[in-house]
Amino acid sequence: MIEESQEKQKGETYTGFRVNRSTETGPFDLIGDIHGCAAELRLLLEKLGYREKDGFYSHPAGRRVVFLGDLVNRGPASIEVVRLAARMVENGTALSVRGNHCQYVYGFFKKYQGNEYTRARPWLEGLSPADFTEFSELYLKLMEPTPPYLILDGGRLVAAHAGIEAEMPGNQSRSIFEFCLYGETTSDLDPVTGYPKRRDWAATYRGKPFIAYGHTPTRNLTPEIRNNTVNLDQGCVYGGRLSALRYPEIEFVQVDAAQSYAKK
Q1: Hey, how many other C-beta atoms are within 10 angstroms of the C-beta on 89?
Q2: What whole-number distance in Å separates Cα of residue 198 and Cα of residue 38?
Q3: Which listed residue, of 30, 89, 169, 246, carries a Cα 20 to 30 Å from 147's Cα?
Q4: Residue 117, H or E segment
Q5: φ and ψ at 230, to 5 degrees?
Q6: Rounded CA gap, 152 and 21, in Å?
Q7: Prediction pTM value
Q8: Residues 46-75: pLDDT tens digits?
Q9: Beta-strand pair 229-231/210-213
Q10: All domains of the chain, ordered by start, with CATH?
């Protein structure tokens, strides 16, 4: 399923995460793939009514953000995004699930083997040794407990980066971990990227929980609800939009990207 190294890395954990937060009923603001777009994230938080104080954002009405993964890579300010998200999680104004790009950088710091873990990260390698050490400690502190998915609002809402099948919530395994982070690939190759195509799991989803996810940028710049699921990745880093879903209101809030930061 995973597109990169299939080998289990030494010390890697796929189970034991706190995924059941069903007693937490929100209201929530679920935010799709950020990919280092810090300026757009700040604008979106402000548009959602959050205000910055003491180095983190909070909402006067007690709303909380749920980050849907992929905080980092591709965009211009991954370090700023991580610091902002980490402060929000630490202060209880945000929750987060792990995305595949979150995992790549996690593996980079853990010295995992495989192309996506060992490739050059200029945004990290430009740091001074002291700053690199400080940031790696912050990042690992944020990511170590970050689960592959979250069950929220009495089981009515599930957040997962690449999606989740109806029978998976409440269970943990390597295959579930990888599905939530990477989706499910097929044997067909994308003629443009050369990577395996992903199965459109949401097309056949029939579960009761409402699933909020991202991972694969949509063609439309406005999110669409399909079969009780919604993809909130509208390709901000590619010049699209950064999206949030207000829950339980089921209202979309978006900001346009200032520019295109990466090529698809």
Answers
A1: 20
A2: 28
A3: 246
A4: helix 115-118
A5: -145, 130
A6: 5
A7: 0.94
A8: 999 999 999 899 999 999 999 999 999 999
A9: parallel
A10: 23-99+149-256 (3.60.21.10)
Q: Which long-range contacts (CB under 8 A, 24 or more apart) does 9-16 make?
A: 9/107, 9/110, 9/112, 9/113, 9/114, 9/117, 11/110, 12/110, 12/112, 14/172, 14/173, 14/174, 14/176, 14/177, 14/178, 15/172, 15/173, 15/174, 15/177, 16/172
Cα separation values, 201 from 116, 160, 205, 207, 230, Å: 24, 13, 6, 11, 12
Copy the structure tokens of residue 39: 């300026």
Rounded to whole angstroms, how far apart are CA atoms 154 and 24?
A: 7
Residue-wise pLDDT tens digits, 185-232: 887 877 766 667 888 999 999 999 999 999 999 999 999 999 999 999
The label of the residue with tokens 């050369």 reads 194
Both tokens assigned to 173: 């395994």
Gap between the Cα atoms of 26 and 9, Å rounded: 35
Residue with tokens 């698809």: 264
What is d(CA 41, CA 243) in angstroms, rounded to the nearest whole number? 9
Output the six-digit token pair for 87: 């402060």
- H or E segment to which residue 156 belongs: none
Instruction: Return left, alpha or beta for 152; rule: phi > 0 is left, psi -120 to 50 is alpha, else beta.
Output: beta
Query: DSSP 3-state assignment of 144?
Result: coil
Which residues have CB under 8 Å from 166's CB, separation 6+? 205, 206, 207, 208, 209
Residues in the chain: 264
